[in-house]
Specification:
There is one protein chain. This protein is an all-beta fold. 1% of the residues lie in helices and 45% in strands. It is built from one helix and 27 strands. The strands form six sheets. The chain has a seven-stranded antiparallel beta sheet with strand order 2-3-4-5-6-7-8, with no helix packed on it. Strands 1-27-26-25 form a four-stranded antiparallel beta sheet. It has a four-stranded antiparallel beta sheet with strand order 9-10-11-12, with no helix packed on it.
């Protein structure tokens, strides 16, 4: 049976951090003790979902789901960079809306642009989609830069990291030629990566590593279907000199979808099984691949009711399990494979974003899409309470 939802857990304030914006870490205020100790003293208590710093470590309600947005409109499409969150607030049925920003945990949300979609935040910049163009917003100056796409029928994306932004677009005069582009914000150079007259799309960028989904080896090989592999480019010298194939389909037909990129590791969901003549769900498995060594780490068993990889940061990954329209999120230790359920609500918890100890996702438990946050700082010590249920 699913646990009830405590209102206090949803409405609790997302409390204090150090003046410089960092967390306390393992330091404790004078007279405090480690929350994992069993002293029976109030100072040795574990954190609870009550809006109070029970363990006196400078954080409030770590491990509890904390509601970030309460607007009557939908809040969706979150992007997370460090402690900065960007998202879209839109009316039901709309595809664009207001671009919102908030610094977590205790910052005030603010509107920074209109008619926006698909935000990607990195530092003091946000890239977003508006009227079939990529726009770069400088949060320090409020200046917008609109990129030109003279050879595009339409544009998908974007993804921003540091001084680069990447996206995919369908080329003018073609039916299925999607290409991945990179724009250098400093030099203002724009170039295509891994060009091919098939489909290259959904690029992700971290530092000098660019990955994307690519069907050049599975384009219409079975009927009109597209079978995707993951490709990678090294942008160390700007225009990539080294494009490599990361996944290699073999045995039963397989297609792979990128979920997240963290350093030199990419999280994907790999789906197997015959593509024709079957209406049954196909087995799939979430995998992390080391781009340097090729080593593969499975994050869950291969099942027909799929655990889909959705986020990756450090030694943590987040999976989404969707069964009969009800989705929940799971936290996985990439080193050990240990898996813990982190949402447990009979609605949809989806589109998770993870950066360090901060996890943000959207769900519709209130009949509109809202954003929620969880501080995972003490998750390994047991401060992890699905739906805010503290022991």
């Amino acid at each position: 049976m699913r646990a009830p939802l405590y209102l206090a857990a949803l409405l609790c304030a997302c409390g204090s951090i150090l003046p410089d914006g960092s967390y306390v870490g393992n330091a404790f205020p004078e007279g405090g003790v480690d929350a994992s100790s069993d002293t029976g003293s109030p100072r040795g208590r574990r954190e609870q979902c009550n809006g109070i710093d029970d363990d006196l470590d400078g954080r409030i309600d770590e491990g509890c789901p904390i509601r970030l947005t309460t607007d009557s409109r939908h809040d969706s499409l979150a992007s997370l960079s460090g402690m900065r969150l960007a998202w879209i607030r839109f009316e039901p049925g709309a595809y664009v809306g207001d671009l919102m920003v908030r610094d977590l945990p205790a910052g005030v949300e603010r509107k920074v642009a209109s008619n926006a979609s698909a935000p990607s935040v990195s530092g003091n910049r946000i890239a977003f989609w508006r009227s079939d163009h990529i726009v770069i917003l400088d949060l320090t100056t409020s200046e917008e830069t609109t990129l030109d796409h003279p050879d595009a029928q339409y544009v998908l994306g974007p993804w921003l990291d540091g001084d680069r932004v990447t996206w995919s677009q369908m080329q003018s005069g073609t039916e299925e030629d999607y290409e991945v582009f990179v724009y250098e914000l400093v030099t203002k150079q724009r170039y295509v990566v891994g060009a091919h007259d098939t489909i290259q799309e959904y690029p992700l960028l971290r530092g000098n590593t660019l990955v994307w989904n690519d069907d050049r080896l599975g384009h219409h090989t079975v009927g009109l279907l597209h079978l995707y592999d993951v490709f990678r480019a090294d942008l160390t010298t700007g225009r990539p000199a080294n494009v490599t194939q990361v996944t290699h389909r073999n045995g039963e037909l397989t297609y792979n979808f990128i979920a997240a990129l963290d350093g030199d590791r990419v999280a994907i969901t790999e789906t197997r099984g015959p593509l024709l003549g079957s209406y049954q769900p196909r087995p799939c498995i979430p995998v992390v691949i080391d781009l340097q060594t090729g080593a593969r780490t499975a994050l869950a068993p291969e099942t027909r009711e799929c655990f889909n990889a959705v986020a990756l940061s450090g030694n943590r990954a987040v999976l989404e399990f969707d069964s009969l329209g009800v989705s929940d999120l799971y936290l996985v230790d990439v080193r050990t494979g240990a898996r813990q359920q982190i949402t447990n609500n009979p609605r949809r918890s989806t589109r998770a974003r993870l950066d360090g100890n901060l996890l943000v996702w959207q769900d519709d438990r209130n009949d509109t899409w809202d954003l929620y946050m969880m501080d995972l700082t003490d998750a390994e010590q047991g401060d992890l309470y699905p739906e805010g249920i503290a022991p």
